């Protein structure tokens, strides 16, 4: 059984490790980061029969939203218990073609992690084997499979105009274009694929990679303060989604990563219409979003639990809200959920969900749209902080470690000349 969203989180966690491994090294956190990623990849491997070469069905996440306070049906919405005390049934769902997104997220996470663990050849090969098998179920993990294997067939596919068009790569007028998260990984895929330009791809890849570069540049323009794609509060980019702080963190990460790519390719900047911008403009944007999250905002409140002098105290989290020595029943835990007292356990480092459109915040446990932390939000937060940290720029030896040197085919000869 695989939980939807864990694949996306694992992929985001792994990305900065092989893009900016030296920054983790400088912070003394590389072993810790690898351990966090391996926890997720081991979970995936344990949910998969490793000798399989094809799959036809998947068992997806625990079904939720079956009950409510009024229904009396014990489930993850109705009950409020510490995870280790759960004693009610948690049915899972069997799905076939509709699980393609879940399979793709798992495949991308495993292929990405294979680069992180490239020095452990047996483990890395196992990750690639499962990633390839899942890819046959859903192909949107193709970019990470190319970087994980160096197989040019994946590069051929990911740079096909047909696939890019079906993925919405040319729909920049879409209101969600440029928002990276659970529902769309398009921007991340484009940003990652255009990195291949650094190896001088040549014909026939350069045209589509250049298009990905240009489309990514359009999104980076939209992040800057003098453009109006994403409106701004007093410091925060507005995505228009519920729980938007995860979007803020992910935007900060991708902007810092794009800045690193520009620096690594000795590219001085890019154009937004007639105006020219440098990597520093993107770093300034990323820092402004991190500053907002960490306390430089109208409420002077850090939205990362445990950081700073003031931070949320009623986080919507069952384990944090129930005392460690208390084993509560399904309904017995409601008294902790509904309490107006601070959480007895501080969930250090958790990024809460949101401030509203006017920078307001409700530190109320039952207001989950404000106080609930998410895996993807914290993955983006850590990635952004690492990308903005010192200790080197893009680690080409990491991201390109599986890609062999090859000479691209020559362009077709010109038509025969006749006088």
On the 0 to 100 scale, the average pLDDT is: 81
Strand/helix succession: HHHEEHHHHHHHHEEHHHHHH
| Outline | globular
Cα-to-Cα separation, first versus last residue: 69 Å
Which runs of at least 5 residues are low in confidence (pLDDT < 50)? 65-69
Round the Cα radius of gyration to an integer and report it: 23 Å
How much helicity do the residues have? 40-55%
Q: What kind of sheet is the major sheet?
A: 2 strands, antiparallel
Tally of helical runs: 17
Strand percent estimate: under 5%
State the strand order across the main sheet.
Answer: 1-2
Could you say which structural class the secondary elements and strand pairing correspond to?
mainly alpha
DSSP, total strands? 4
Defining traits:
single chain, 419 residues, mainly alpha, two-stranded antiparallel ribbon, two-stranded antiparallel sheet, 44% helix, globular
In brief, what are we looking at here?
The protein has 419 residues and is mainly α. It is built from 17 helices and 4 strands. The strands form 2 sheets. Strands 1-2 form a two-stranded antiparallel ribbon. Strands 3-4 form a two-stranded antiparallel sheet.
